[in-house]
Structure formats: C-alpha cells, structure tokens
Amino acid sequence: MLLCMRGDSFARRSVAIVCLLICTYVLAYTVPQNSHAYGETAPACVLYEYDGKVEHIFTHELIFDTDAAYSPSNKLRNCFDKDHMTSREFAALLDALYTRGYVLVRLESVLDGHVTVPIGKIPLVMSFDDMTYDTHGCGCVDKLVWRDGGVWDYTAGEEPQYTRERENVTILESFIEKHPDFSYDGGRATLCVNGYNGILGYRITPDCRVSEKVMERDRTEATAFVKELKNLGYSFASHTYYHKYFNSTSASELRKDCRKWREYIAPVVGDTRVLCYPAGEHNAKSAKNKVFGEYGYDVFLCVGCHAETKYEREQGDAKFIYRKPFDGTALRLYRDMYAHLVDTREIYDVRRFRPFSYKGGY
Predict the structure, then answer these.
(1) Rounded to 5, what percent of the chain is helix, strand, coil?
(2) If you placed Cys at 121, which of 30, 76, 117, 232 could pair as Cys (CB 3.0 to 4.6 Å)?
(3) What confidence score (pLDDT) does residue 158 get?
(4) Is 350 exposed, middle or buried (0-12, 13-18, 19+ CB in 10 A)?
C-alpha cells in the first residue's frame, strides 16, 4: 500500500499516525519474534511518498591501515586525514544511520521526484568519489573484485589479501547482507569514477602506462565486474577523466577531458547523465559549464551542506545536487551540522594522527 504524505501539517501528522498504526499491526502479526523490526525475514511494510529534502552523503576511498596512511613518512598523510574516512569510521557511520532509521534509495528515484520508503524510514543517497586505487602501500586497498558471488577488496602482499571489511563498497555490501532493509528497492551508492589511472583498481586507459595486454585484460575484467555491481544496484557517474578543478580548466580542456572519459570509461561503465565536480568546484553561470551539457550531462553533484543556489534551482535543463562530505575534516568541524545523521565524535577514529579537537579546515 502506498500512502502519500502531502498537504498541511495536521493532515500529514494524521496520515503518519494511521500509517504507523497499520505498520505496527502488520509487524506484530507477521514478524517472527526473534527477528529485527524490518529485519532479514520481515515482510514488505506500508510505504509513503517522501516529499522532503533527501540527504546525499559521500566518501572517498577508505583508509584501512592507519599506521601506513598517517605515518610521518607518507607524503599523502595530510590528504588522507583531510579527505578520507577510515574503515572503522565508515562501518560505525552505517550503524548510526541504520539506528536512526535511514534507508538507501537510488539517486535515480530522487531525480524522478518519486521517493517512496517504508513508514518509519528516512531516504538517503550515498556516493563514493575517485575509486582509482593508485596509492599502493599507503593504507588503501588495491582493487575491488568479484569473488565467490560477491564484492571483495584486494590488497597485494597483505594477509589476508581478500576481505569484505576494508573499503566502502565491501563494508556496505556486508552491512546490507546483515540488514537488508537498509537498502530499499535495491538502493546502493553511485560510484563517481575518474579515468587517468583507471577505475576500481583496473588499469584500463593509456594514461595508466601499462602494456596493451594488461590494459585489455583489465578492461575485460572491469567490464564484467561493473555488470555485477550494476546488478546489485550501483550506478556510475563521471568524476571527470583527469580530476582537474573547474575554475583552473579552460573550456577546450574540459572538452578534451569529456572526450577521453567517453572514449575509455563510458564503454566500461555505460553512459551517464551525472557528472561529479572534482572537489565540488564549479560555476553554474560560467559558459564553460555548458561544455558538460554537450556531452549529455544534466545532473551535477556538488559539495556542501546547503541547497542549490537560486540560479541553479531555476535551471530547467540541469539539476545541481549538494552532497555532505564525510572525511576527517567534516567529522571534526561539522558535528552540530551532522547531528541528525550521526554523532561524529562517537565514530571518530582515535588512530588518526590529529585529535578530534583539531579545528583546521579545508
């Protein structure tokens, strides 16, 4: 049953109360006593159409080896602290979101303007940026792979080499297996991939500087892997080919970038209308932004804790979506702003070299 919660506040509250009573009745008589509410064997519950703002959060690749990532000898130390979460933090974030009633929905559902979720649940969109895995030995995994019917993360030289607990996709999949109701209607994350060093650990472009044989092998493996990810519910977006910032890139350079992404990445991940700005840097009023439209992009993923500007909102041929970053800086600075999602202090990994009290910004 689908119930639409629209109208004045009194009507909305009345409908919500009725829906909750119905859902409670259904659960009371159909959910086994030893199962979690909406748990692994729970039946489909009453749905409602959500008409509020749908939160969109994102991360970069995760840090699983904090000793290596935050070592003073690692030149990427500050970047990893500023722009990344640790595996432990991401797992704790999922627990917090689930406890607070959030449920993953597809970005496409939000774009269509029809977001329905079970009563008692709050829709959430998630995306993961970069996903190149070009920092071997620095605390990140080397590759994502399809193995034994599921997604695994792989790191050469590590024991164990394969796990399902070190990277965002594998941690998310493991969590959904335990809590299938965290994903509504197959909702997963959008993977925003570059191209300059391949995708997901596969060296599929000439810029990777590998042999043609390796590039062809990786392209074949990556294509098959992407198909499995899409079957799970993941979607793909362009994060540009070279990850160059908008303001310092000319229109001609943007066209070259779009051509290369279309030539080397689109054949593997498929066409997409979604473009994710590197670092969120953009200017919707700039003529340069129209270059992306020439290549079919009309949904733009930005960075920030606010809604789109008035100008962006009024663009009938494009949509600008602002996403909340989850990384070391955001955990330290945005505790109050993120309080409805998670207590960032509670999930903060004390293995970081900077304490939670550090207030340095972006």
Answers:
(1) 40, 20, 40
(2) 117
(3) 87
(4) exposed
Per the structure block, which two tokens stand in for 256?
A: 């070259």
Residue type at 99? T
Paired tokens of 307: 């809604």
Q: pLDDT of 85-130, one tens digit each?
A: 999 999 999 999 999 999 999 999 999 998 999 999 999 999 999 9
User: Which backbone phi and psi does 289 adopt, to 5 degrees?
Assistant: -65, -25
- Separation of alpha carbons 301 and 266, rounded Å: 18
Q: Binning pLDDT at 50, 70 and 90, where does residue 45 land?
A: confident
Residue 17 has pLDDT above 80, yes or no: no
Residue 83 sits at the vertex; the CA angle it makes with 326 and 93, to the nearest 5 degrees, is 25
Residues 6+ apart with CB under 8 A from 65: 139, 140
Amino acid of residue 26: V
The pTM assigned to this predicted structure is: 0.88
User: If you search the block for the tokens 């439209």, which residue do you land on?
Assistant: 293
